[in-house]
Amino acid sequence: xxxxxxxxxxxxxxxxxxxxxxxxxxxxxxxxxxxxxxxxxxxxxxxxxxxxxxxxxxxxxxxxxxxxxxxxxxxxxxxxxxxxxxxxxxxxxxxxxxxxxxxxxxxxxxxxxxxxxxxxxxxxxxxxxxxxxxxxxxxxxxxxxxxxxxxxxxxxxxxxxxxxxxxxxxxxx
Length: 173
Description:
By secondary structure, the chain is of the alpha+beta class. The chain is 23% helix and 26% strand.
């Protein structure tokens, strides 16, 4: 240890140990050090969720419990359909198998079934879409999910495409 460090250390320790009144402490938000838009809440960590895709342009996001999942259509499918005018939501309690229809989406251009990527039981449909079907064009891979299901066999998710493989199938079309 250098002579200067030996000399300063006792003073620094005493200064740091002193208790300052709270009125003199400047409170700083932890978000100030981050650029705008980079601060995220931890209520729904994406590291704990698994999102997979099908070749028929559906996505499934398995929650961290490994049993529940949300199903929707991809951005590519939403753009291909155009303006969505009606979304048929599934009834809670409906049993679906992998590749079976779990709902339907109708647009100005066409109509398309939404196929379940895995088998399970529908727990609920996204009621927002029954009132505002166009919301699916605004957030197809976010809040505009179509159905939430309780997955029968979580290992079925492993056979689906990850984002990179899904994008490769889009590039082929």
